[in-house]
Amino acid sequence: MTLVPLPAFIAVSATLFFIGVAGVLVRRNAVVILMSVELMLNATNLAFVAFSRRLAVAGERGSVFVVFVFVVAAAEVAVGLAIILAAYRNRPTVDVDQLDEMKG
Amino acid sequence: MTIHDLLAVLPEAIVTLVAIVVLVIDAGVGERRARPWLPWVTIVGLAIALASQSWAPAGGTFFGGFVVVDDFSRFFRLLFIVLAAFTVLVAPPYLRREEVSAGEFYATVLFSTIGAMTIALATDLITLFVGIELMSIPVYVLAGLQRRDRYANEASLKYFLLGAFSTAILLYGFAWLFGISGSTDLAKIAAAVRTAGLGSPAVVVALALVTTGLGFKAAVVPFHQWTPDAYEGAPTPSTAFMSVAPKAAAFAAILRVMATALGPIQLDWALVFAILAVITMTTGNIVALVQTNVKRMLAYSSIAHTGYILAAVAATAAGASAGAAVLFYVFAYGIMNLGAFACLELLDLEGTRGATLDELNGLWSRHAAGATAFTIFLVNLTGIPPTVGFLAKFLVFQPVIDAGFTWLAVAIALNAAAAAFYYLRVVVHMFMYDAEAAAPKVEPARVLSWSLGIASIATIVLGILPDPIYSFAVRAAGPILTK
Predict the structure, then answer these.
(1) What is the ipTM of this complex?
(2) pTM of the predicted structure, to 2 decimals
């Protein structure tokens, strides 16, 4: 059985990353934007793990990095959902285009 | 991990402890009774954290190469502790008036400060990433701390979404740096980047992603769109902190990553940074010219200042003098910009709104000390001698010219001249016009006035006698830019 080559992992990772970027730029629902950011972070995790396992020079720090990304992303989502909820209580919408009190 | 490692990060540990103590006191004693003395607990804690450096072991790397204590990290420790203390001193009247929980505010400021200090300690991408997030996440909370205010909601939501987006971009850049070098250590990445050179597409991808990610954090045009809304809508004491500490921390990260890890291709990214610097300062200044709300004007002005600092970053080929210019500018900017935003706290305005130019009419006759302090901060931001703001700009010129960017130096001079118009217009409104009948009430806060007075005098003293800070900045730039 042959191993899946490293470029295949990187291609999947890059695809996930660009789907995430497109999601942030195109979608207007704050929760969906947050999901798209999470997709970008997962693309990063995949790249880290793939590099860490397959590069001859790479150490284990890439896998360690992924654990830190998990933890920090969880904290970020907790704060982010709280912020979205606080905004929703004052004005029942999560559409970022309708949050336009400030201009100039 | 040894006791030696723990002692090396003693200041960070003490600030963490103070933040927890503030939260516990706030919850245990009760909001109302704790409110008057929580700022003083925080200030004393910060002072102990700063003093505790003398018990720490001399510099070196700790935690198996994850953390480095050098003059660079000591410089930023001093800066961030000063900024946190200043924020805490000026915040209480506003927090009381708008019924923002004081304990939560001080603790959140402290948590963000720890993250900022961690960034300055980083020699490894993991430490750097954790530091950036530890600094950013509390700041999203600070922006939205006034939960019932629609502007604050909008500010924190926009700041959060773009902040998270930029973190993800930066992190993907880190993944590519890891892919190039197989290491998260900045020095090892530098070695791998030197071998690969700009001919390797992976290096170009990593460079583009990291520049974009850090550009968002420092509010570099064209990644600045979140800045005016986040600064305007956030509660004013939060804005004061947000506009200085995260920006200083972003530049600490930029110096660590760009000058260390990507240092071997400095000549290639320097031109990009120089162009971004011109676009940033020009856009910031032009849009600031047409603002009538002073808070929003100061937000755009902070973008312009990012441009000046970025110019010094672009000039790192000139060696330690460029690094010292960045550090000195960041320090000066921290005090003068925090002071300018804090002056808006003197006025009793509803919600998070900043004063319009007309509402500042005749402030001189209503609160002479406040108007004087505000004037001094604005003169600093303009860059008129003998203030520290002038000296900071002046120090940027030499390295920029040494690095061969004469056109960039010309752009800085032209921008500084144009910026004088909108800064001094505020002064004209405060001194030349009569107060309107419906002018907002002036806050009779003594600690706030004293802090502003001392800070504004400090900017002049530092403008005349810059040596303690400047020589510190030169030493701090040494470990980053000696090649």
Answers:
(1) 0.95
(2) 0.95
